[in-house]
Write a sequence for this structure.
C-alpha cells in the first residue's frame, strides 16, 4: 500500500494516489483543526467524510498538515493483520508528535476501534478516543471528555444508524467523482471475514436521502457517484409514504434518472445476490457503468462452502455467463484469497481455472490472514504454511497479469467515452479518466479545450500495465 502525500490519506487497494483539489471546508473559518487518515476500503473513506461533517459542526476544520492539528484521527481497517500493523506503526509516529505537543488529541476510529475496544487504550497509551463505525455522532461529547483529560470510548454497534441525514464533507475530492454509502454492515458471515463483527448488522439507508445526496453532488458539478455497501445487492428500502419497495435495481435506476450526464457505479456485489433485474437495469441505462466487482474468493466449491460464501463454483461461473450475455462489453473484477484453511493444490488450481474462465480485467488478491473471532478462526485450522500461501498467491497474481494484459490488449483500436477526472500523474499535457468498464485511460489534451468533468471520446492506441493510452477523437 502506498502512502500518499496528502492530509487526508487513503490507504486502499482500490484507489490510487493522486493530487486532489482543496478540502471543501475553508479551514480558516474554524477555531480548531483536525487531521484524518483513512485506511482500508472505500466505506472507510466515505465514513471519514461523515466524520468531517460532524466535526465541522463542532468548530473543527480539516487540515492536510498533521503538525497544526489539535485532533488527529485514524480511520482504521482490520481486514487483514497487515492492515492493523500499518496503523500501529503510524501510531508510533504520532506518539512522538504528541510528546512535543501534549494538548493534541489522538483518536482511533473504524474497524480496529470496534474490534479492540477499550483494550486499545491499554495497548496504546497515547490514544485518547476509541470510536466505532456506528458511534460517530457521539464524537463531540467524547472529544469534550478527552479535552478534560478522560478517555473517550464508544463502540456501540447499531441496528439503525445510517447517517442518512448527514451531508458528507468531501475530503480530497477531485470534484468529479464521489462515494455515496447506501448500506452499512454485513449479514453474510463469510467465515474468514471480520467485517460483520466490526461493522455490525446490515441496514439500508433511506432511498430518498441517497437520491437527494446524488442530486446535490450533480448540482455541485460532480459527474459520477459510486453507490457503496458491503453487499449492495441486498439493499432494501420500504418507502411507506409512497408505498413503494426500493430494491437495489430500483435505487440504481432512481439515481441514473437524475441526469444522463451523471455516471453511476456501485461496489461491492455478492455473487449470490446479484439479480437479473440489476443486470437488465444496468443494460438499460447508458450512464450506469458496465462494470461489476464480483469477488469469487475461491474457485473451488468445497473451499467456498468452508468460506460460507453460499454459492458453488458453477453458480459463480453461470453468473459470469449471464453478465456477459446481457452486457457483452461489461468489465468484471474480483477479490481472491489464496491458501484458505485446508486448501489443497488441486483446489488452488480450481481458483486459477475459474479466473481464466471469468477473464477478470483485474483483481485484488490476498493470502489468507486469520482474524480473531471469525468463524474460520474458531472452526478451522490455519494450516496452509505461509510459504505455500505466498507461492499460490504469486501464481494467482501471475494468472491475473496474463488476463489483464489480454483484456487491455483487446481494447486497442476501440473508442470509449471517458469522463475526465484530472491531469495524468506524469504530465500536465495529458488527461486521465475512466471508461465505463472502469479502466483508466490516459491521453494527450491536444489542442482541444476540454476540462475536468467533461466527457470525451478516446480511441485506444496502446496500453501499459493497468492503463489504456489513447487519443481524443471528435465524433
Ligand atoms: N484474509 C485475507 N483476505 C481477506 N479478505 C477479507 N478477509 C480476509 C482475510 N481474513 C479479502 C476478501 C474480501 C476483501 C475485501 O478482502 O477477498 O473480498
Ligand atoms: Fe466480509 Fe463476506 Fe460481508 Fe464481504 S460479504 S464484508 S467478505 S462477510
Amino acid at each position: 500500500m502506498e502512502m500518499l502525500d496528502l492530509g487526508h490519506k487513503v490507504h486502499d487497494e482500490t484507489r490510487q494516489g493522486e493530487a486532489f483539489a482543496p478540502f471543501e471546508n475553508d479551514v480558516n473559518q474554524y477555531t480548531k483543526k483536525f487531521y484524518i487518515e483513512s485506511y482500508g476500503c472505500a466505506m472507510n473513506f466515505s465514513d471519514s467524510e461523515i466524520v468531517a461533517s460532524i466535526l465541522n459542526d463542532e468548530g473543527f476544520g480539516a487540515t492536510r498538515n498533521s503538525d497544526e492539528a489539535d485532533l488527529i484521527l485514524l480511520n482504521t481497517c482490520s481486514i487483514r493483520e497487515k492492515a492493523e500493523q500499518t496503523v500501529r506503526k503510524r501510531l508510533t509516529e504520532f506518539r512522538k508528535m504528541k510528546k512535543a505537543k501534549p494538548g493534541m488529541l489522538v483518536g482511533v476510529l473504524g474497524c480496529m476501534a470496534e474490534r479492540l475496544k477499550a483494550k486499545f487504550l491499554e495497548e496504546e497509551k497515547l490514544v485518547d478516543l476509541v470510536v466505532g463505525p456506528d458511534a460517530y455522532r457521539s464524537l463531540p461529547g467524547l472529544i469534550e471528555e478527552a479535552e478534560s483529560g478522560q478517555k473517550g470510548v464508544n463502540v456501540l454497534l447499531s441496528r439503525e444508524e445510517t447517517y442518512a441525514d448527514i451531508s458528507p464533507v468531501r475530503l480530497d475530492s477531485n470534484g468529479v467523482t464521489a462515494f455515496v454509502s447506501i448500506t452499512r454492515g454485513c449479514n453474510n458471515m463469510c467465515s474468514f471475514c471480520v467485517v460483520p463483527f466490526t461493522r455490525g448488522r446490515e441496514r439500508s439507508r433511506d432511498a430518498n436521502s441517497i437520491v437527494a445526496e446524488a442530486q446535490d453532488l450533480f448540482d455541485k458539478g460532480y459527474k459520477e457517484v459510486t453507490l457503496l455497501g458491503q453487499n449492495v445487492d441486498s439493499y432494501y428500502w420500504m418507502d411507506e409514504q409512497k408505498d413503494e419497495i426500493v430494491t437495489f435495481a430500483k435505487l440504481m435506476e432512481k439515481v441514473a434518472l437524475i441526469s444522463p450526464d451523471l455516471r453511476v457505479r456501485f461496489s461491492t456485489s455478492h455473487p449470490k445476490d446479484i439479480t437479473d433485474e440489476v443486470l437488465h437495469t444496468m443494460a438499460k441505462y447508458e450512464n450506469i457503468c458496465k462494470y461489476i466487482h464480483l469477488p469469487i474468493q475461491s474457485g473451488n466449491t468445497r473451499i467456498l462452502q468452508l468460506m460460507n460464501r453460499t454459492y458453488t463454483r458453477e453458480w459463480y461461473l453461470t453468473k459470469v455467463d449471464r453478465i456477459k450475455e446481457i452486457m457483452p462489453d461489461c468489465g468484471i473484477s474480483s477479490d481472491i484469497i489464496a491458501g484458505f484453511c485446508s486448501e489443497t493444490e488441486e483446489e488452488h488450481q480450481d481458483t486459477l481455472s475459474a479466473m481464466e474462465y471469468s477473464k477478470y480485467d483485474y483483481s485484488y488478491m490476498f493470502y489468507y490472514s486469520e482474524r480473531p473471532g471469525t468463524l474460520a478462526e474458531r472452526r478451522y485450522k490455519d494450516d496452509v504454511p505461509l510459504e505455500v500461501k505466498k507461492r499460490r498467491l504469486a501464481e494467482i497474481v501471475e494468472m491475473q497479469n496474463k488476463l489483464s494484459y489480454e483484456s487491455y490488449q483487446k481494447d486497442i483500436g476501440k473508442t470509449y467515452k471517458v469522463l475526465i477526472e484530472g491531469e495524468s500523474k506524469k504530465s500536465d499535457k495529458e488527461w486521465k479518466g475512466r471508461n465505463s468498464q472502469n479502466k483508466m485511460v490516459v491521453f494527450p489534451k491536444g489542442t482541444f479545450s476540454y476540462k475536468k468533468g467533461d466527457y470525451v471520446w478516446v480511441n485506444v492506441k496502446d496500453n501499459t500495465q493497468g492503463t489504456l493510452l489513447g487519443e481524443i477523437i471528435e465524433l
About this structure: The radius of gyration is 22 Å. The domain at 415-473 is CATH 2.40.50.140 (OB fold (Dihydrolipoamide Acetyltransferase, E2P)).
